[in-house]
Amino acid sequence: MRHVLVAGPLHPAGLALLDAAEGVSYDLVTSPDPAAYASRIGAAHGLILRMQPLTRPIVAAAPNLEVVSRHGVGYDAVDVSALDERGVLLAIVGDVNSRTVAEHAMMLILAGSRRLVKSANAVRAGDWSHREDLEPREVRDKTLLVIGYGRIGRHLARMAGAFGMHVIAHDPFLQPADFDGATSAHDLDEALDVADMVSIHVPGSDRPVLGQAEFGRLKRGAIVVNTSRGSAIDEAALLAALEDGTVGGACLDVLTQEPPPGNHPLVGHERVIVTPHSAGLTAECARRMAMAAVRNVLDHFDGRLDPAVVVNPARK
Questions:
Q1: pLDDT per position as a tens digit, 37-79
Q2: pTM reported for the whole predicted model
Q3: Among residues 163, 164, 202, 157, which one has the least CA distance to residue 178?
Q4: Which of 8, 12, 44, 257 keeps 20 to 30 A from 208, CA to CA?
Q5: How far apart are the first and last CA of the chain?
Q6: Bridging pattern class, strands 247-252 and 46-49
Q7: Cis amide leading into 259 (omega within 30)
Q8: Angstrom distance (rounded) from CA 238 to CA 206
Q9: How far apart are CA 309 and CA 316, in angstroms?
Q10: CA distance 221 to 225
Q11: Catalytic residue ranges
């Protein structure tokens, strides 16, 4: 009997796959506290991981672990080297949420440009005259800089193009011929100089993509959107740029600390929209991700896990 530990809430469609799997048992731990699932990791042959970190001590406490399946495509909080040392596979769900995240990014671009939240709040406060402030801006004929031109960036470029936007993209890992649907922007500084809006789609890293210097190059009043990782933006520099008007608005689905403290200055800022790291969490996408995450584990047990979704290079 193979045992699976599900760390975090899972769509019923994923649980149904586990229920139907022969020779497989499972535990479901819905608490976001890593200690809640860590206490049960010892019996697990497979781990389905939501947002909780997977640290070296937790891996060390899992003598039977064979495969970890991330409920998503990012694995910033996973100690991959610890898994490698133990010969444990790390799998991701593949391309099940790129269009979903791109839709969210496009929504934030429109909401930020049209000052949607501020306008809605004005009506709730009884201020119908807010309509005369003429703060909203159109996106047509504006320049959108997409930083990171993978699947999500490409979907966003097509959506933005349908709205009449001029899309430029910066991705140092691509060749000029790979920028189908956007104009290649090799030099990030030059791209920032002409951008009316910026949307970030990069993996997490130790160095922010946008900091004080980058914000200083933007057109005054530019809109910044981040649906990738909180580490992609220097939040202190963003707050300063919002306060001095360099940045006209920020729309963030991710923050460096999640959930944020109650006094987080960006969350309460009138020109900032924050969503709860939910760009990929529609009902439809949650179903796809849950089923893909479960299938990765079951496919590994059956000896037919797709190498394309395995992260550890040595184990592909």
A1: 999 999 999 999 998 999 999 999 999 999 999 998 888 889 9
A2: 0.88
A3: 157
A4: 8
A5: 25
A6: unpaired
A7: yes
A8: 17
A9: 9
A10: 13
A11: 229, 258, 277
